[in-house]
């Protein structure tokens, strides 16, 4: 769940947990990125307490470590989505502007300008370049109006281009999942991404979903792509006030997921992918039931009855000590890991699951019909 601002913060309607709760105490021994969200979402601390703790994200722990890895030009790992691609993206932009063909994509075997610090899961998609790190900082809740984050926004807008056609970072590119992340980052940092929003609306498929593969081959909607897009549209609506066109597209995307109970085939009723019951952090672009139910908790309102089975499966993963485990960490080089190893208690997943259950249990039995905003 995103660390929302005044445009629509998480507001549970159950009594807050207390700081002497053993799970809360364990959470509060974590990184500042965990602590400020626990204070806001679970114990209902004062705005001053929350803001004070959130300010530490930039200077301590995970947030400070990521910011320390930023290059003077505002980039991480010398690329937008992939490391060591900045020169290629700039050359592509120049070639296309001159009417020529783009240069060949850099070989993955080329000597890297900056090696990732953790190659323990090498072979998967790298998570070290600018786009991925900005999404991490967004989830950590580094204050977006701080000088370093505003400087980063300015530098990325000036210096960062996508590997796809050399397009400027905040103009987005052709992949709907990447464009969804671009909208999250732009809304978070206060950058205009309205044209990217309009592209996503235009890319919606007849079944109400989205699919990042639709650019290259016929494909139905995708659970993962659809969830990423509606999450981005919701964040943009709360940042800008939104539009009826975008709200309608988002609701149609929600309906795509709800008709499938978030994890079942519409045709057969079978579970689409058993791995969706394994909860990773960060989930990246991948889909799972904790990530999906988080979206609906963030959206708020009375829970749709079709969420019940997915919520039950999230609840069932809670261990006797009140915590949830880290599972299914997605492979790929990272600067460092927020938590490890899989199979151990996860502060991130525990925080996220508790937020979902507080929202659901506060309203699921109210007897009212579902009311999507």
Description:
The protein has 373 residues and is an all-alpha fold. It is 44% helix and 0% strand. It is built from 14 helices and no strands. It has helices at residues 22-28, 32-41, 47-55, 61-68, 86-97, 130-140, 147-159, 176-189, 194-203, 223-240, 244-258, 289-299, 308-316, 347-363. Helix 2 (32-41) packs antiparallel against helix 3 (47-55) and helix 8 runs parallel beside helix 10 (223-240). The two termini are 17 Å apart. Residues 1-10, 110-122 and 367-372 have low confidence and may be disordered.
In short:
The chain has 373 residues and is mainly alpha-helical.
Secondary-structure map:
Layout: H1 22-28, H2 32-41, H3 47-55, H4 61-68, H5 86-97, H6 130-140, H7 147-159, H8 176-189, H9 194-203, H10 223-240, H11 244-258, H12 289-299, H13 308-316, H14 347-363
Helix pairs in contact: 2-3, 2-14, 6-8, 8-9, 8-10, 10-11, 12-14
How far is it from the N-terminal to the C-terminal residue, by CA? 17 Å
- Spatial extent as radius of gyration: 20 Å
What is the overall shape?
A: globular
Give the overall pLDDT as a whole number.
90
Q: Describe the biggest sheet? A: none
Percent of residues in beta strands? under 5%
If helices are DSSP runs of H or I spanning 4 or more residues, what is the number of helices?
Answer: 14
Give the topology string: H per helix, E per strand. Answer: HHHHHHHHHHHHHH
* Low-pLDDT stretches: 1-10, 110-122, 367-372
Fraction of helical residues: 40-55%
Structural class given helices, strands, pairing? mainly alpha
